[in-house]
C-alpha cells in the first residue's frame, strides 16, 4: 500500500469518533499500526489530538510507545509523548488530559512485565531509554518503574522473571547503557529477584572485567555462580561407524540400469 492510500485509510478509519480505538485481530489500534508501519510523525500528532488511547495494548501487552522503543525510534517516541503545543485549538484541560495519558503509557508493562524504559534497555535502545529517563525529570514522575494495579508508581523495576534493566544491559555487554543506568539512573546494582543471578553474576559469567569492576565499585554483590554446561561430542570415528551400521545394501537389477 503506497503512502497516499495508507494516509486515506487512516483518515477514513479515524473520521468517526467511535472508530479511533478500534482494534485489529491482533488487538492493535490505529496508533499501533501507524507506529509499526512507520507512518509520518504528523499522523501520530493528529491522532493524539483526537484523543486516541495511547495506553491501549495489543495481544503482547505493547503500547505504541513500546514499539517505538523496540525500534529505537527516538523521533517516533517523541511524537507519542511531546505535549500538544499551546497554539493548537484545544481546551487546556484536553491538552493536559492528552499529555497525562501519554505519560501514563510509558509506565504500562507488556506481557513480560517490561515498561517502555525496560524494553528500550532490553533492546539496547539507549537513545529511547535516555529520553524516557529525561521525561521523569520534566514531568516529576518516575517513568523507569512499573505501575501497579492501584495506579501508583513504585520502586519495583523487575520484569516477570525478576530481572532488571541493568541485567539486560550487562547480559548484552552494553557498556554505555550500563554506565548510564548505574551513574545517571542510579539503578540498584543488586536489584532483581534474590533467587536469581545478580548483575555482577552475569558480568562474571560473560567475563567482562570492565563491567565487573564498575559493579564492584558500586558495592555489587554476587548471589550465584553461573556455570557453563556442555556435552562432550562423540568422536568422528564413532559417528562414522554408527552411520555405516545404518546403511543397507540391496541387489541392483542390471536390467533396469541404462
From TrEMBL:
Is Repeat among this UniProt entry's keywords? yes
Q: Which Pfam families does the entry mention?
A: Ank_2
UniProt cross-references to SUPFAM superfamilies, sorted A to Z: Ankyrin repeat
Keyword terms: ANK repeat, Repeat
Give the matching InterPro entries. Ankyrin_rpt, Ankyrin_rpt-contain_sf
For this protein, the record's PANTHER family field holds:
ANKYRIN REPEAT AND PROTEIN KINASE DOMAIN-CONTAINING PROTEIN, ANKYRIN REPEAT-CONTAINING PROTEIN-RELATED
Q: What is this protein called?
A: Uncharacterized protein
